[in-house]
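Late entry, evening session. Most of the bench is empty. Finally got around to the prediction I had been postponing all week. Sequence below, unchanged from the version circulated by S.P.
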Amino acid sequence: MSKETKLGSVEVALKEAKVWVDKYRKAPVENEENRKNRTNAYLIPLQTLKLVLDQDIDAVRAYKGINNAGEQVLLFVGTKLDKETGIYRDVFKPGNELENDEVAYDATRPCPPNGDPESPL
């Protein structure tokens, strides 16, 4: 059974968000190459969110991955709560008829280089 952690509101004050972001960026990295290639944020197209939210789901899970261009990305999957176990199970919609496979959603862009240089985060 998954253990639910009380993290507070889904809204995070900008002041607290800055602390979290700073903590992540200062976390130890194995080597300089990894530090140089670290993704600090993701630009998520609205269409990606709409597609994953257009399902009968209770929550969304984001998986980290590396795409074919070598970029770090987030893959979004809808989840449904299994009331017997308390586990949110991944659910997948069928993809287009050409590939005939279930799909996860991406189109995220890593930041840098797609970040907002004026953002306080």
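Two things to note before I forget:
Residues 39-111 form one domain.
The helical segments are 14-26, 32-36, 46-53.
Will write this up properly tomorrow.
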